[in-house]
């Protein structure tokens, strides 16, 4: 009974801790040959989105984007610490564009409508990209240090203007892996190790129970055989000198 209760608790923990279609347009292992943006001064705006307006804009035709996580192909993001990525933009449109800034949001993988965090908004001043030109823009972000380790979806967009008309292009829409800072073992790792040890313990208890059950059956079978022999011997001793024993002897002589 105790083993069943323990197994039920483990299943409940699995349901709680079990972590959660990604459209990824980011090339991590391919070098991006780009020119520097003209006059690309940086400005950090914090965690609000008001500088870009409240709405979301469509992408301009002829604009291609790519992103790179430098020296971080696994896309590991340490909670509470800054992570760098590079956004490449290629202008194959018909007019020069001016990059306004970059913003990103963090979501649950199974439902992007569930927003976890608005990440840092980074502005660029006088960052123009002429026609048939490529440019790279750095972006730094940090997820909350209180965020539980696990897999989440990062959605990053770059906002720009063409002829004073705002546009935006999504440069990344895919997963990142959030890990704890400064520790070899995360909460999830400790849980998995504990779960593995518990499963091994349960298997050991089950095996021990099976051995005990088999041993009891063997002992019972042995006792029955010995007991029968003992009873027969005792019966012979008790019948010695009685009429039954004498009649048995006379039958044997005949």
Automatic annotation (TrEMBL):
Residues spanning the signal sequence: 1-26
InterPro entries in UniProt: TRAP_alpha
Localization in the cell: Endoplasmic reticulum membrane
Transmembrane domains' residue ranges: 190-209
Pfam family, one: TRAP_alpha
Membrane topology qualifier: Single-pass type I membrane protein
GO cellular component: endoplasmic reticulum membrane
Keywords: Calcium, Endoplasmic reticulum, Membrane, Signal, Transmembrane, Transmembrane helix
Domain of life where this protein originates: Eukaryota
Keyword Chloroplast: no
Domain notes: Shows a remarkable charge distribution with the N-terminus being highly negatively charged, and the cytoplasmic C-terminus positively charged.
Protein family per UniProt: Belongs to the TRAP-alpha family.
Role description: TRAP proteins are part of a complex whose function is to bind calcium to the ER membrane and thereby regulate the retention of ER resident proteins. May be involved in the recycling of the translocation apparatus after completion of the translocation process or may function as a membrane-bound chaperone facilitating folding of translocated proteins.
Assembly notes: Heterotetramer of TRAP-alpha, TRAP-beta, TRAP-delta and TRAP-gamma.
Protein's name in the database: Translocon-associated protein subunit alpha
């Amino acid at each position: 009974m105790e083993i069943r209760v323990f197994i039920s608790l483990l299943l409940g923990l699995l349901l709680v801790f079990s972590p959660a279609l990604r459209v990824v347009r980011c090339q991590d292992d391919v070098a991006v040959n780009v020119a520097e943006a003209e006059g690309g001064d940086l400005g950090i705006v914090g965690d609000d989105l008001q500088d870009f307006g409240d709405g979301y804009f469509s992408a301009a035709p002829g604009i291609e984007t790519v992103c790179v996580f430098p020296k971080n192909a696994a896309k590991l993001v340490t909670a509470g610490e800054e992570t760098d990525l590079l956004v490449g933009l290629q202008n194959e449109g018909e007019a020069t564009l001016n990059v306004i800034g970059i913003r990103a949001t963090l979501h649950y993988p199974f439902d992007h409508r569930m927003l976890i965090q608005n990440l840092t908004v980074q502005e660029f001043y006088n960052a123009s990209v002429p026609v048939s030109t490529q440019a790279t823009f750095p972006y730094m972000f940090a997820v909350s240090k209180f965020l539980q380790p696990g897999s989440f979806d990062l959605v990053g967009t770059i906002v720009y203007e063409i002829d004073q008309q705002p546009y935006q292009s999504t440069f990344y829409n895919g997963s990142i892996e959030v890990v704890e800072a400064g520790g070899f073992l995360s909460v999830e790792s400790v849980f998995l190790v504990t779960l593995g040890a518990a499963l091994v313990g349960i298997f050991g208890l089950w095996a021990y129970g099976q051995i005990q059950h088999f041993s009891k059956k063997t002992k019972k079978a042995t006792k029955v055989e010995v007991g029968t022999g003992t009873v027969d011997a005792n019966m012979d001793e008790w019948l010695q000198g009685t009429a039954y024993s004498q009649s048995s002897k006379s039958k044997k002589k005949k």
